[in-house]
Amino acid sequence: MRQRRSQLLPMTGSNAEEAGGRETVDSSSISLSSKGKDSIHEIPTYFAFAILALLGMLYGGVFLLDKSLPSAYKISDENEYPDAFIAERAQNILKGLTDIGPKVVGSKQNEIEAVNYLSTTIDNIINDADDSYTITKDIQVTSGAYYLGFVPNGLINSYANVQNIVVKVDGKNTEESILINAHFDSVPTSPGACDDGIMVSVMLETLRKLTQTKREYERNIIFLFNGAEESPLQAAHGFITQHKWAKTCKIIINLEASGHGGRAIMFQSGPKGSSYLLSHYLSVPYPYAQAAGEEIFQSNVIPSDTDFRLFRDFGGLSGYDMAFAQNGYRYHTKYDNFKDLPLGSFQHAGSNLLALVKSLAEDSDTIATDDDKMVYFDVFNWFLISYSMLAAYIVNLFVCLASLVVAILSARNLQLGVNKSSFLYLFLTTLAILGSWVIAGGLALLIALLIDATKNTMTWYGSPIIVFGLYVAPIIGAFTGVMWIFNHFGPHKGKSLGTQSQIQMHMNRLIWTFVLFIATLLKIRSVYVIMLPVLFNTLASVIILLLKWQHTARKWQITAFIFTILPAIMSMYVAVEIYSLFIPITGRIGANRNPEMIVGLLTVLVLLLIVSHYLTFSVLVKRQYMLPIIMFAGFLITFIVAVSNGAFPYSGDRESPTPQRFTIYHTNRIHHDASGGIEEQSGIFMLNNDRNSPDSVKYELDLNDNYNISQDCEKYPACGMPISSARMIQTVEVSTWKPFTKAVINERISMTYTTKTLSTNVKQYSFTVEGPDHLNVFIRPITGTTILKTSLHDIATDELIFINHVYGKIKTNLEFTMDIQADNINKPLMDFVVSGKYYHLKGQETITKEFDEFIKKFPDWADVTPSLANYESYVI
Known about the structure:
By secondary structure, the chain is an alpha+beta fold. The chain is 39% helix and 21% strand. The strands form three sheets. Strands 1, 2, 3, 4, 5, 6, 7, 10, 11, 12, 15, 17, 19 and 20 form a 14-stranded mixed β-sheet that branches. It has a four-stranded antiparallel β-sheet with strand order 13-14-18-16, with no helix packed on it. The protein has a two-stranded antiparallel ribbon with strand order 8-9. The N and C termini lie far apart (106 Å).
């Protein structure tokens, strides 16, 4: 009888089971070569789509969770909760600040009205404070200069008479202070409600709560209300390098915004004493922090910077950098207004700041200054996980080792021998998995290039769900399509579907294990997003091994599936944050970058983290070929809608705006040549902030016959355009110049200089430049000439120097010396440009009727920042 059973159902490595009622699997009856028979391991086709639907629902749940905010306390709640941060009071403070309007450095609104408003508010808080506190207010007016090294072009940053309002609450140890910083100035046209008014109001309410009842603090608490951040990063430099209290500062809490509302993320900590800093951050009620965010920000892929850099580099401070980063569509636009900021955002930032400052101020321990780096991430805003790099090494390498050991043991149980055919099969499986990744990445790039070539980029900008159709669907289609080809035509003889699927699961995990190992050696802290899926898949495999479920039909599948869910949700949590940050950023990266490539490759990485661990189940799908077919069909429908202008990226809806940004300067240009000749031009310089500019408005603005800027790039510094930032050098060639009527600018710019011969080949120039409160100077040495140094900053170069000069309360000329070296110092040595920017009208400059009519031609979905400018070049 046994012999007859053996003939009918030959026992192989893929179905051998111990007796005793366990599920057994007949590999001969379920192999791929068996036609017309459903394998016991197979799952219905609809189940595969159910998994995708489940993943979509989980992503939606994570998205909603990411938008959740804490309940806010109102003033009427204060009697019941006397120690709580009162969001409504902070909101009332912000209302008064935003009612002033845009607060550009140098304007009356910033230098007088905002300073008076904040000073009065602070005086009221001091008057209401408990008598046990010593509280001192100081208004600093400061001037200075330093080098700000942006990538790829830095600048010399000169400032004069900018203002800081500083408040100090004395602690027992008057030689140690915690510094809290936020800025009250704003960009032109924006009321600056979130950037950075909300943080100013949060600081003021925190000051009130810290001083209204008697308690003792071990350290001073210094509140810096910074009046020149957008100019950029000037008042912070003035404080940390010159203020009388600066030397006592040991820890910085910098509060910023690159979005509008939502939750305030802690995206930088350190650079020293990170374990100490994070131990105090554990005291906050709503932890929201990601080491991945820190590494992304410090990689310079985000076109922004914060004052944290100044306190770190010029003051040697360590601490925290926190910011609102969601809904970046409103950032630096007219939509950054008061009424759309949710009260829960005040509560989130305020409760965290109040708890953190209390924890630091009441701590008498020595502030750690070790060079440790920490891995940290929050779990759905519920709690924070943090551990040292040493712990990360140990954990990550242990997970790598466990993953490898489990794979080897599983291979033995799946009857893979140590022979050529087994190694070849494992190699081909690995090649198929990696091939699916590469093809998916290549497909994403191809789609990005195709969409860009049809001039239909950023259709997902206003409706990010379109990313699912344009990129998620075809990428999943590529993953599953390649694996279907391998599963259908590969050398699987003698291997059941269950065996194939588990081998693919282990090889997929081993690929990620290798990535985890390399990233750990490279000290990449954000590698926890890889470690978690590898860890959970390894744990699932251990359970399957211990319980001997490898050859069951469903138990191993259910176990493996359950253990993918939590790491998938964690990966989705990071993905939601990344998308919410990067999609709005594509609206301000310049016309020279293809945002489709950014979003496409980002989607490939996100799906690799989430979906690749589910591909192991694709071989089990009854009609596996249906997966890529449906995915590509969904892509084609979305693609047709996208390229047929069915999905417009921009919206001027005030409830949910997704505007296109336009920075325009009505400009007068004057070029002085070496022989004394003068050439004058006037026009509109339009900085093209995204890929669709200026095509999106070329008909409305009659931009068909524009001047080719690139032809001036060799003749004049900065291509003859009045750029206001060194970062604009990258995009100026792809921007727009439209010849136009002359701008009315009565406050002329002027430049005078004297010279002194220092040696036979070195000449010193002394320059005085007069103009408006925002002034730029470009100096380009002529070939064979070298700038040795300037009095503003000790820099030696034969490349373009960009000087940014801003004055605040009192008009101040830019004065500096420069030593220049050449074989013949009696010939022309440099191109020298002065460019003035008029962001706020003082009665001398007016927007002409023609320029006003031009501005009104922009559609309602455009956010326009109009200014006046002049550009005057000299050959010296």
